[in-house]
Amino acid sequence: MGNRVLALDIGSVRVGVAVSDPTRTIAQGLGVWDAESWREDFVRALAEYDPGVVVVGLPVRTDGRASEMGERIRGLVRELEGEYPGREFTLWDERFTTVIAQRAMLEADVSRRKRRKSVDKVAAVVILEGWLESHR
After folding, report:
1. From the CA atom positions of the chain, what is the Rg in Å?
2. In this predicted model, what pLDDT tens digit does every residue of 116-129 receive, in sequence order?
């Protein structure tokens, strides 16, 4: 298994994706996958980047309680652990990642249309950066 870390921001419409470099220093956005067919893209990303860890954003309410989507994500991660037993999967609190991503894109003067298309990818980068920072 490689040294890279793959991060997923799974939503009901899109899945934002980011990957680290092999030294686990830099997080880079890979793209946005369709939530209906993201598993095929996931398998390709596993083959291409061979991540040692897959970090999945866990939606949590602002008061810290679990959300309905959070419970779905927990179930999905258990499923993935069963399908890919040699890989490490971990959950990461994604509470404010979309807000942080939107703010960063506003500051970079990204157009509204481009923000809508890439906010999930940037949110995945924010998730990955948080995880990487906590493991330095």
Report:
1. 14
2. 556 678 889 989 99
